[in-house]
Design a protein that fits this description.
Elements lengths: L1 H11 L3 E4 L6 E7 L5 H12 L4 E6 L8 H6 L2 E4 L7 H10 L4 E5 L14 H9 L3 E7 L4 E8 L5 H12 L5
Parallel strand pairs: 1-7, 2-5, 2-6, 3-4, 3-5
Antiparallel strand pairs: 6-7
Helix pairs in contact: 1-2, 4-5
């Protein structure tokens, strides 16, 4: 029912969902570009529309009362900084302890326009030994989707070349 409702909302807003299913049960899903608070809502609606059980990370303060239960219900995982533990290793534990786990991350780490991305998603995927799948929000074409799965290798520059080619022509 939620899937049908989200599909209907996206369609009514003129958005099209394009999916190239990676065929694996665990992966890091990078979502770009991340330029607006609407990205989160569009991404959640698209994930629910295709019945994708994806999780996301956010600073722990987002999970406080009165709205924390909503973010947890949507798949949120609180991040506590300054615990002396490597975040990549903490998140790799989530992958290792579950049969299915999809972690969505905005590689920009902010809604501001940047000339580079943070590399946390790469380190998480390497630590968990899972592929990276790329998701996009193309506001010009009103398309939201995912595809382009790859295993991140030791050469981060090669990974970013793959990513750059996938996102080429997609606009915020």
């Amino acid at each position: 029912m939620l899937s049908s409702f989200c599909s209907l909302i996206l369609k009514a807003l003129g958005w099209k969902i394009i999916i190239d299913d990676p065929g694996v049960k665990k992966y890091v899903l990078i979502v770009a570009p991340h330029t607006s608070n609407w990205d989160f809502l569009l991404g959640i609606a698209a994930a629910k529309a295709i019945k994708l059980d994806a999780h996301f990370i956010a600073k722990h303060t987002v999970f406080r009362k009165p709205f924390g239960w909503i973010f947890r219900g949507l798949g949120g995982i609180p991040v506590y900084r300054g615990q002396g533990r490597n975040l990549s290793e903490q998140l790799a534990e989530h992958f290792h302890s579950r049969d299915r786990f999809i972690l969505g991350i905005a590689p920009e780490g902010t809604r501001s326009k940047l000339d580079h991305w943070k590399t946390g998603f790469y380190h998480i995927a390497r630590a968990a030994d899972v592929p990276v799948v790329m998701a996009f929000l193309d506001y010009r074409r009103k398309e939201v989707g995912m595809g382009g799965a790859f295993m991140p290798g030791a050469d981060m520059n090669e990974c970013f070349a793959i990513i750059q080619a996938f996102y080429s022509g997609r606009e915020a």
